[in-house]
Design goal:
2 copies of one chain form a homodimer. Chain A has 131 residues and is α+β, with helices and mostly antiparallel strands. Chain A contains 4 helices and 4 strands, in the order H-E-H-E-E-H-H-E. The termini of chain A are far apart.
């Protein structure tokens, strides 16, 4: 009887484990983009980023969050906190017409760009914060 | 007749404007905290931050979002994207027992701390991303 239980558990595990591994590799992809913007082009840049973020969230199922801010003390320093469903969703994102249009629009506005892959410690929110 | 309109508008403005100013000063307070953690105390720090973020979001009405991440390439580099209902909510937050306990717990774990006030450009999300 105990051996039967053991065999049942092993068979169940064989079915369950691959799905767990797949879920792991399919985890959300998080990134922080840090940009420095040309000060005389800052307003144009902010408008382009706003339009881009709104479009990406609206039309792409794999773009979960784009929170873009600038530093109060250094308004040309912009950070974007980005969450994609997974790496595939990000790779899809950077080939979309709206992303390519955004990149073309801002290419002369962005002085530096640093992309930092990040891993969640805690993602806690009261409710959706979206404007 | 036109003068009556003008007077009406001025009177209405007198009632409406103070509320607008109040709404402005009551806007969400956004910040990015950047920390460097002692590498041998990293796991303890992450656990303390996780517990703290969960508690703050659960018990404080004015703490809207605490998204804490570490850099994949530099795991001791931690960023927390913070949104409070307003500055008063933040000032309340830093006097709560759970915040003071968190600060006491991590005081020997944190090597550096930089607090950066930020202003939203676009806060776009598909749905609540919370773990």
């Amino acid at each position: 009887m105990r051996l039967q239980y053991l065999i049942t558990i092993i068979i169940m595990a064989a079915f369950i484990l691959p799905e767990k591994v797949s879920a792991q590799s399919n985890s959300n992809y998080l990134r922080i983009a840090k940009l420095t913007i040309d000060s005389i082009k800052l307003e144009g840049y902010k408008e382009a980023l706003k339009v881009h973020a709104e479009t990406a969230i609206r039309v792409e199922s794999g773009v979960l969050m784009l929170y873009a801010v600038y530093e109060k003390e250094h308004p040309t320093h912009v950070s974007v906190f980005e969450i994609y469903a997974n790496v595939d969703a990000y790779n899809f994102h950077i080939k979309t017409p709206h992303f390519l249009k955004y990149k073309a629009t801002v290419q002369d506005m962005v002085k530096s760009l640093e992309l930092i892959d990040v891993v969640p410690i805690a993602l806690k929110a009261k409710k959706q914060i979206s404007n």
